[in-house]
Design a protein that fits this description.
The structure is a homotetramer.
Chain A lengths: L1 E2 L1 H17 L13 H7 L1 H25 L4 E2 L1 H14 L3 H11 L4 H30 L11 H11 L2 H14 L1 H16 L12
Helix pairs in contact in A: 1-3, 1-4, 3-5, 3-9, 4-6, 5-6, 6-8, 6-9, 8-9
């Protein structure tokens, strides 16, 4: 049993790097191209950057809020977080893949890329719930004095993530544009007050 | 309500990564080229690296000084900071774009690239003011015992950022070289004593 | 003699960056390719990402647990950690090399790439033991009040790393697929409860 | 006046990222090449990775030891550190440039690349002394109770850095191989006990 500070530092590092590496996926046009047209053509890349950045940023905020409730860590909890980070760190890949396909004309490619993109957020949402369930089950790693009933109510909002991203992922097969729009809207939804997964304890 | 330490760690991480990724935008010449000529030809890239690094570095110093006044964080404040970081993390892209265009002969390309480059700093300056306004309005997140009147005077200097970068951004359409020079000079100006946005409390 | 907090921050940073850079080694297929076939063809890259991420992630957990026992640092200890990080930060290179070769048909290339890949983990395991031996020898840098006999028993599990990776490295010459499978299985083994190198002190 | 913790976090981040980005400069050979020959051909890249990693790693250790003596920060001190980091973050560029040139047959290219490579370390050494001089002059930012006379003696060892790297930089014009060897030897020298720039206070 150790405190969570070094685990938080490590998670913060991976979040910060994954979110900042997104920019490397945006192609810099050459000198000879018509720059205005080239940049307009890259709109899916800019949109992908925006949606991935905001979604990962909000996940970081929620991870941060979750850890405000957690007092202790143990190796199993650290491994679950490493599994969570596995998908967070992966985000730049499906982001670039999706942006590349959306800039082209291959409809099957768009569907598959969007499937992988929202599938990655589905995996992150599942792992996020795993982190919460492991920490809160029997109040295993929680700070003392928390209102467990209130936390349970708050945690129901977490549980909304996996089915929501599952539906969006399946929708990618039908229409990748609708699926992408929903990933963007979901990011906005996570930000709304009241949709916050768990209220941090008032002191 | 939580303390700001983890938010600061995350912001520091994004700042540190964005500033260090700038170097990846500098092209390494091949063996067969005349290395001296190739490096001289890359002068806009080196200049872009220098200006972006110093500007982002100073923004970090100011962000750091601002947070010395702030005691608490909340989700909304965290989201505003994520929005701020969205543009900070974006800086390597317009930096490389601008360097690429300035090394070429396409004048329209230079204008557009410079517009995007200074426009990114404009967005950062606006978000920086948003961070300050949210934290200081009604002393919402500030440390107790600060001299609010003195802070208001100091904050007027902040407010200089957005119009200054707006003018520089518009100038990019007229003359991108003048615009670039002014971005560089503004970085120097931010460093001058007295132009510091807010004085940290003396203890 | 200083405390270990800044050394831990630095190590955490390198771990977090190395683990997140792995994603840059995954090639994004172009628009014109059959995306499904292209992604299936990249299976060694995804597997390499998974194995490297999990192995480095577990090494981070163990490094973290080791440092829970350590109270002080000195320059020599810092240098040994820099030597350890030299190989941790190198991991993305043999990972990409191995993935590239496994996607092709050059058997000698596969053997050599796998040799370098598991050889890197061998070097990490050796340096990890060096960190432990330097810190624990004569209880040089340890926290007071630890049960040294129990630590010695726990540390025997560390000592398993170098010979295990040595055998896997030699096996790479015979059969790189068997060698890769064993690197993956070893990662799972490190996660098993009881295989934890050293138990952190209960407080 | 603020404490130095956030400045240290930021510096640690830039150091950790710059040192880890070095690996991106190593070219991954393709499947069709003779892998053994291709890797042997890349020896300057591996050597460059090793020398840059160790040199930057040791600079981090020394920066860390220096900050163990420093209690306070101010904006000017932060700007000097940003200037120091400008060159630390630049290291991956001359490292890759040098490795590229040393793998080729262009002698002028080797000289110029080596000039830039050791020139970068010269700039880092100068900025490192600037950090120390600003912090220690009149004990401006130092912790109370330090033995200033002993610190002055220790600091003489710092002052050895700039002339040493200046000579190595000039030697690059005569013989880049000798110059590279000396950069490597100097890294070893910095690690020797007794050559430590400043002894941290014993408590």
């Amino acid at each position: 049993m150790t405190d969570t500070s070094r685990l938080e530092t490590f998670c913060d590092g991976v979040f910060a790097i994954a979110i900042t590496l997104l920019v490397l996926g945006i192609r810099v046009p050459g000198v000879k191209e018509d720059l205005g047209a080239a940049l307009l053509n890259e709109w899916p890349t800019f949109l992908a950057y925006l949606i991935s950045f905001v979604t990962v940023g909000i996940m970081w905020v929620n991870h941060h809020r979750l850890f405000a409730l957690i007092e202790r860590s143990n190796p199993t909890f650290a491994y679950i977080n490493v599994g969570f980070l596995l998908f967070v760190a992966f985000v730049p890949y499906p982001t670039e893949l999706m942006a590349t396909q959306f800039a082209g004309l291959n409809d099957d490619g768009k569907r598959l890329a969007m499937l992988l993109y929202s599938g990655t957020f589905l995996a992150i949402a599942i792992m996020f719930n795993a982190i919460w369930l492991y920490a809160s089950s029997g109040a295993r790693l929680l700070k003392p004095g928390l209102d467990l009933e209130a936390l349970k109510v708050g945690a129901r909002r977490f549980a909304f993530g996996p089915p929501a991203y599952l539906i969006i992922t399946l929708l990618a097969i039908v229409n990748p544009y609708v699926s992408l729009t929903l990933v963007g809207l979901l990011a906005v939804y996570w930000m709304l007050p009241g949709s916050a997964p768990v209220e941090a304890p008032r002191q």
